[in-house]
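Q:
Got a chain?
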Amino acid sequence: MHYDGMIFRPPSEANSILLQISVGCSHNKCTFCEMYKAKRFQIKKDDVILKDIGYAAKNYTYLDRLFICDGDALIIPQKRLVTYLCEIKKKLPWVKRVGVYANTKSISMKTVDELKELRNHGLGIAYMGLETGDDITLKAINKGADANRMIEMGKKIKASGIKLSITVLLGIAGRERSVVHAQETGRVLSAINPDYVGALTLMLTPGTPLYKDHIDGKFPMLDANEMLKELGIMIASTDLSNGLFHANHASNYLPIRAQFPKDKNKTLKQIEDALSGKISLKPEHLRGL
């Protein structure tokens, strides 16, 4: 397989074939993220992509999921994306689901009918980084969209029948806006009603603007208990009709996997027990990105 630079994928795609169709992220301006800073966004050449699909067909017959990299491959023009999905279906017929990162820009460039076409050709899930539902924080971290736009584009994915997984970031609003961030994120998640929510805990990365703000004393990091309190408020503010809310990423202090709505109250009790010391938190040295 031909990989350009470091490859990233969602935790749930750990056992997936990783097919890099594009390089980097078309937005690449978020203040907390350094994943694609060393890459200039581009779509790879057809011959390289088709060769990699052929390689996967010969060497990855034991993997039944495939994830299209890089940062927001949904932005690839419709005809080319359909071509790749058809080739995947033809050469790797055992693959049950294809996943992709998406942002509001790439979703907006596809009609619902085009998204349905992608779904019909095997695209089963899109991962969208919401991070926060707080407009002030969204602007501060340079996400490129406000909460209403996030809701609109999230609903668009849902309307197409493609499953939607949304990522949120605990601690991204700092201490002053922590409660507002948690409440507004819960409100936006409830409005979108995604199939999955993944809560990660902010870990600052050297070289990012947010890291510099922290070093300069402009952005205070929340401690473990403050992160947990924020998670509790977020979950209390979130209503999903039948979604999975999990916080079991390596960055999290308390592993959580809750099926909404039935596990909501049980999960809030679990957080209360952790805050009172009845449940131990993951030590700092075991946390990671």
Summary: The longest strand covers residues 123-131.
